[in-house]
Design goal:
Layout: H1 2-13, H2 17-30, E1 34-35, H3 37-47, H4 49-68, E2 77-85, E3 96-107, H5 112-178, H6 184-219, E4 228-229, H7 242-249, H8 253-274, E5 280-289, E6 296-304, H9 314-379, H10 385-420
Parallel strand pairs: 1-4
Antiparallel strand pairs: 2-3, 3-5, 5-6
Amino acid sequence: MRYKTLALAAALCLAPCWTLAQDAAPAMTAAGRSLTLQEALALAQASNPALKARQAQLAAAEGQATDAAALLASNPQVWTERTRRRVAAPPGTPRQNEWAAGIEQSLEIAGQRGHRREAAQEALSAVRLEIDDASRQLRAEVSQRFYRVLALQRRVEVEAQALQLFEDTARAIERRRASGEDTRLDANVAVVEAERARNALASIQEELLQARADLAAGLQLDAAELPQAAGELQLTPLVYTRDELLQAALSQPRLQALQAREQSAQSRLRLERAARYPDITVGVNVGREGPLDARERLTTVTLSVPLPLFKHNAAGIGQASTELAQAQVERRAAERDAPAQVQALWSRLQSLQARVERLQRLVLPTLADNERLSLRSREVGQIGLLELLVTSRQSLDARRDLIDALLDYHTTRAELEAAAGWTSQP
């Protein structure tokens, strides 16, 4: 009976983790409390405050572009005046009422309108590209949090099975010790292993609670209301090559946004330099004045130009030059760092894929075979409890390593696709 209990527990412990991943998702879906990766991404896109704040900046950029596209930079000014003139004259002479009206308009003469329009349009393009980049980064962040929750759910299953295995072993050893078949040392070892398994399960459950809280925060949900993560934790084929990622990295939205910011800064610098030239103000005035028997109608054309003697817009030019230099530095750094980051993440992803394949192809089947051989050897008395526990713990550690490697694989893949600006859907 004791060996049947150990064999059943070991078989449960060594069940392939991908079978658990496939069976767990339908069960949670049937309970109505499942959350897929696609659903999590949709929730994040609809409710994430950082993304909404970035999208809110679009209205300001569109307003600036609309103002910059206006025919003239300033509105015309209309003025009017009425004068009552009293002239020293013989008594009875009527008072004279005079009036005048005019319109004035300032005109830019150094091409400021074109520079202003170009700067506003490039700034608007940059905001749109930054929203696209923020959306991609959010998808990567939510994907990483989702896969962490999914992996920890699998770890909880593994640790629960490990606890069941070692508790069954401890009870079986205690019964055999009572009948004199096993020593007290064997019983103590089994009790310690069971307590270590219980502690490992509690630790993973604590990590799962924190991971669920992090995912819920990204989805703007309460952690207690967050459903179970549903999905498969396994390798998926890559739909791109390293060269394709490197090419995509040079045209990703973040780099395009930096280029648009630089072009906007260049146009703004040209605008500030053109602002050194004074604006011309043209006006047309009409009026009536003079005594009633000799009224005069006046039409006047005015032209005024401020003299640029003391101010030459040095502050505006200096600020625009600084912004342009900063934009150029950021763009060049991003263009240099993006391919290097893609190369590093690609190498890491390939290494993780190889690790997972080795664990699935070699380590797990070998350990499962070792567990069966150990149980048979224990039944015939060839090995003791310590050797059996070592074999069981190796199998458990291998499953933990596989889950951790799969988690690293998916988080690295999400980071890689975000760094390269890849547009594939999950």
